[in-house]
Amino acid sequence: MTWLLETLAWTGVLIAIVLVVRRPVARHFGARSAYALWLLPFLRLLMPPFVLPAPQLPPAAIPAGDFPMVAGPAAASETALPVETAIAGSPHWVPTLELALISVWLSGALLYIVLRLAAYRRLRAQLLADAIVVGEAGAVRLVETSATRSPLAFGVFDKIVALPAGFMALPDRASRDLALAHELSHHRAHDLAVNFAALPLFALHWFNPLSWLGWRAMRRDQEAACDARVMEGRDRRERTRYAALIASAAADPGPRVALAAPMACPVLGDKSIIHRLRSLTVNELSLRRRRMGGFLVGLAALGLPLTASVTYASAGAGEDNGPSLAPPAPPAAPSAPAVPSAPSAPLAPSAPLAPATPIAGGDSAQEGRRVVVIRTKDDKEGDVEHRSIILRGPDGKVIGADSPEFAARMKELERHLAELDGEIERSVKVDEKRIKEIEIRAHAAGERAAEAGSRMARDMARIEMSCDDNDKAIEGRTDDGRKVIRVCRKIVSANALSGLKSAREAIASDARMNAETRRRVIEDLDREIERLERNPNG
């Protein structure tokens, strides 16, 4: 139970943290990094407790006078009476109240999940009641139905995109393709599966306002991340068309559902539409910045084990860790002292060492090399050994250090050492030759790699922003053969400005759109138009 409560507390804290940092993260690292932040509370929900071995604590010392001596069963029963009285007077309503609160909490979470799943099943049945299959995009079916007025993605295993009746026959093919790209991007990113997986996380917090705020914020970040995937690599003109499509879809939201991923995200309200339109006006973030955002989210995920619950395993099988209610056992009678054993007999002294063997004379020596070791011992300060090696010749005579035979043997040893030195030197020369060959090959490989890099650098195109009254990109080469593409910044900005003005006129003339929504969208577009007019060079 402690693990469940700690999980509830930590997931609530993480949801609150994500709600605070999601907008700065989206501004500096992109919408996809902000959407990835919701992985943190979900992973904390799945994290099991860490089970550690039970601590080995020494038994507490009990003073001898704290317990009376128990002489028999009557005394034992008298000692147990106060304990039973204390148990009878304990408040039994505390665990009952705790169990009731936990039951209400889990029942509310289960009801939260059941209601969401039931709403999704009703939506699916309503959309497929009169649906007509009009095409396929991989594993995704495209159907037209009168139950929706905007494209709608749903289904985890049976993936479907529901389209309004006559959607595939619309004359504006560019807007139609952008709407389809958005819904198909939801399926490719498995956003519908993410919504189902996140249900238990927010269901456990059904009583907490952060749960409802977190669900809506996660859906907004999901839509913004989908927009970022669709708009990646596209120019300003397509971004403007996409913004106009989102704004126009807000006037006709279609069915309001929580588990599907509609184009205009109607369940999330007008604030989500404004958030998505603002995200489209942000300049394309660099790949390095987006990777940095993913790295920071991964680093935060690695720190989640610091919040894990810690439990201790039981000290042993069958051991009762709770307080014992039985009276203390009477002390055992003292045992008789053990009979001391008889002292052992003293050890016999060791026998004296035999005298050293005298060196045999020359007449009794045998042919060949003999070694005689003379040992002496002195036990006053400990065991001391002195060893001396005597070398004898074939005739049994001792060979001294100044004898000719000793010198001859030393010369023979030096000759063997010289031969070994020659072999080592030859081996070293062979190794040096091989090392030289390896260095030559490595140098040649480095030169080839440098030459290939130079060719690659010459072949890479360089883009320059310049204006010469030409609205087309001009391709040429420099003196060193490098490709150069020149584009006019003013003309690019002028095209973007024209697209924004067209979108503003379309939104301003759309009488079906809510007045407050139209006013906010037009204000955002006016600010962007004013910025481009003030700074046509971008």
UniProtKB/TrEMBL annotation:
Domain (Peptidase M56) ranges: 11-258
Pfam families: Peptidase_M56
Matches recorded under InterPro entries: Beta-lactam_resp_regulator (IPR052173), Peptidase_M56 (IPR008756)
Alphabetically ordered keywords of this record: Membrane, Transmembrane, Transmembrane helix
Biased composition annotated in UniProt, kind: Pro residues: 325-334
Residues passing through the membrane, by range: 6-22, 34-52, 99-119, 295-315
Region (Disordered): 317-369
The name this protein goes by in its record: M56 family metallopeptidase
